[in-house]
Amino acid sequence: AVLLQQTLQLDQSQQAPADSGTLDSPWRALALGGLLGVALSFASLGGAQPAKAADLKQGKEVFNNICAACHAGGNNLIVADKQLKKEAFQKYGVLEVNKIKAIISGGQNAMPALGQILSADEIDDVANYVMQQSEKGWA
């Protein structure tokens, strides 16, 4: 917006008198239009990208291949009290997907960090899958 305002001021200050008979007026309009287009392009680059929806099918696949060894059916074979179930999540303050993603990425207690093994998309997918399953009771 500032670039556009400066361009308009520059264009107004450099206009030739009406009686000069110069032919550069159409070129100024074209240049102004081009600058406006560039300014709008840069303005749109800074906008937030829409969030990608989690791929729950991929999340299930990641869970079955990596997590199910210890967490089959939402259970926990290492620390029985810390299941991947709604009640346990509430008890231990796991109230949102971002908390699950943090645990998957960085590990917690006996659970190893998987942030170097899984991609960000895989972590997002499996975390959303786990949250969905906990809400459904792993049925």
Q: Would you kindly provide a written description of the structure presented here, covering whatever features stand out?
A:
With 139 residues, the chain is mainly alpha-helical. It is built from 6 helices and no strands. The protein has helices spanning 2-13, 25-45, 56-71, 86-91, 97-106, 120-136. The protein is elongated. It starts with a helix and ends with a helix.
Describe the secondary structure blueprint for this structure.
Blueprint: H1 2-13, H2 25-45, H3 56-71, H4 86-91, H5 97-106, H6 120-136
Summary keywords:
139 residues; mainly alpha; 6 helices; 59% helix; elongated; disordered N terminus
Secondary-structure element series: HHHHHH
Q: Give the low-confidence spans.
A: 1-8, 19-23
Distance N terminus to C terminus?
54 Å
Compute the average pLDDT. 79
Strand content: under 5%
Radius of gyration: 28 Å
Percent of residues in helical segments? 55-70%
Structural class: mainly alpha
Shape: elongated
Tally of extended strands?
Answer: 0
Total helical elements? 6
Major sheet details: none
Question: TL;DR?
Answer:
With 139 residues, this protein is an all-alpha fold. It contains 6 helices and no strands.
